[in-house]
């Protein structure tokens, strides 16, 4: 009972005026650290001959700035960058029908010393914005730059497409050869083809994930682009040096020029990107627009070939088949072969287009990349 009484007494004690709840205190610490990191940028710029700046966010800021400049032997005048820079046309493609804007145009460069475009890291810091389109754009650039074989992926897809049509023993369908059975068999063929198409679509998603999972070259290309913004900006917004320091001025600097740099490899092992592929819409919804095979995205899709086309052909052949002049199996096989020819013809037309880029292939399959990665790294 003694502890209960004491606890009650504690509750009745007046709250101190300087008392800050633990959660709020953590937030204050975080905000103070963030402000100190921003101030460090201007401290270093000032030490390199830029506008005079001093802060009480951390002790002896002017001396700390000079220590960093001298220890790293940095030469040239310091200056701050613009608040935002335009993205390249290549990068903007991944944001259509919209365009890059707002925080996504914040430069990777935190300041300039002479011609060096420097990104400052004080402690653990985010690799990049967590915005979904930003991560998708970084994925597409990394997929192209990593050297991951697009041809292999196209070949796998082609093999799936060639195996779409069912190989069913007609005798197992209980066929008698009348119009009703013909219609039933036609619907069976349509259902089987679409089921196989759906299965192939799921298998190809796994093929794609396997292509990028634990792929060191892709991880390094993804990390390099996220760090530097080279393809995103290709101007003063992209960084080529990373300055890592504490608030006492103990600093080092890394020059980053390619995804094969040792420093990029080190950071990439922490980032460890894993890509899953999600359908942009349901199979059912994609099969409802035979008059609009490009759909909302403006791209022909996998379902245009093996969904809408097969569905229409089978239905038409089963409806128009004449049992008086043709045998049942003749009608059925003709529908089957027409469907197969439709798929092969469509694939022949679209193959060159999907072989041009990872983006074309992935959008043809009505998929989008969903990248999971460690966004806060130790620099």
Task: Characterize the structure shown.
With 379 residues, this protein is α+β, with helices and mostly antiparallel strands. It folds into 2 domains: 24-138 and 219-274, no CATH class; 147-216 and 277-377, no CATH class. The chain has helices spanning 2-12, 22-47, 61-71, 89-92, 132-145, 150-162, 179-212, 216-228, 262-271, 283-286, 302-320, 328-354, 358-364; strands at 78-79, 111-113, 116-121, 125-126, 241-245, 251-255, 274-279, 367-372, 376-377. The strands form 3 sheets. It has a 5-stranded mixed β-sheet, with helices on one face. It has a two-stranded antiparallel ribbon with strand order 4-9. Helix 6 packs antiparallel against helix 7, helix 6 (150-162) packs antiparallel against helix 12 and helix 8 crosses helix 9 (262-271). The longest helix has 34 residues, at 179-212. The radius of gyration is 30 Å and the shape is rod-shaped. The chain starts with a helix and ends with a strand. 35% of the residues are buried. Residues 1-16 have low confidence and may be disordered.
Q: Proportion of β residues?
A: 5-15%
Order of helices and strands: HHHEHEEEHHHHEEHEHHHHEE
The number of distinct β-strands equals 9
**Chain-averaged pLDDT:** 83
Helical segment count: 13
What's the number of domains?
2
Q: Please give the share of residues in helix.
A: 40-55%
Unreliable spans are: 1-16
Widest beta sheet: strand line-up: 1-2-3-5-6
Radius of gyration: 30 Å
